[in-house]
Backbone:
């Protein structure tokens, strides 16, 4: 599936942290004791005996995992640097693999993510991309929404529409249930600014973003 749309940009603030886009959602409130109780109930509903040795600590382990997964680092913000030599240069950051959860089946999906932008006097701190991606992955998600949210975050960070994000996803809800297509991949692209209007630039990005590692 391929989607693209032009998104409004915020003002750039080179040299300091910038806020996330306005459509970001606040982190959930997680009632861990209640989750522990519900997992125990789920085990019973599935015909298990939660008091047997192997399952005794399972509800608390599962609840701890949910708490951690749904609480990605809220301080993961993009930091921009001014670099006057980086003029109109295509930057593609790839190899950003993050785990998320499909909101339709609550099963994992692995999102192999590539971010491209035109560095025109502003360079985004490379180490931040992975943390921003993790921030949007750590919730019940759809790959299409993740792709757009990540693109919005980079647009907001660099203050330019010239941003493209490509995501190659492996969804366990396709691999281990339903049609059981183990090799199925879903690709999404969100392209803005010159990535929409310049075919050569778009092709350069897609070529680089297609060089993904083994999922
Ligand atoms: Zn699914």
Residues:
């Amino acid at each position: 599936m391929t989607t693209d749309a032009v998104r409004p940009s915020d003002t750039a603030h080179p040299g300091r942290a910038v806020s996330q886009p306005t459509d970001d959602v606040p982190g959930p409130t997680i009632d861990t004791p209640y989750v522990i109780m519900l997992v125990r109930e789920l085990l019973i509903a599935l015909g298990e005996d939660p008091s047997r040795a192997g399952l005794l600590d399972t509800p608390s382990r599962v609840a701890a995992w949910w708490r951690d997964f749904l609480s990605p680092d809220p301080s993961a913000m993009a930091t921009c640097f001014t670099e006057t030599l980086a003029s109109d240069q295509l930057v593609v950051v790839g190899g950003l693999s993050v785990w998320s959860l499909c909101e339709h089946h609550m099963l994992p999906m692995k999102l192999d993510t590539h971010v491209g932008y035109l560095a025109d006097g502003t360079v985004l701190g490379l180490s931040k991309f992975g943390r921003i991606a993790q921030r949007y992955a750590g919730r019940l998600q759809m790959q299409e929404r993740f792709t757009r949210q990540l693109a919005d975050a980079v647009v907001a960070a660099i203050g330019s529409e010239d941003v493209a994000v490509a995501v190659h996803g492996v969804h366990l809800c396709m691999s281990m249930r339903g049609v059981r297509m183990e090799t199925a991949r879903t690709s999404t692209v969100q392209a803005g600014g010159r990535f929409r209007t310049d075919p050569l630039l778009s092709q350069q990005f897609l070529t680089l973003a297609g060089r993904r590692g083994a999922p």
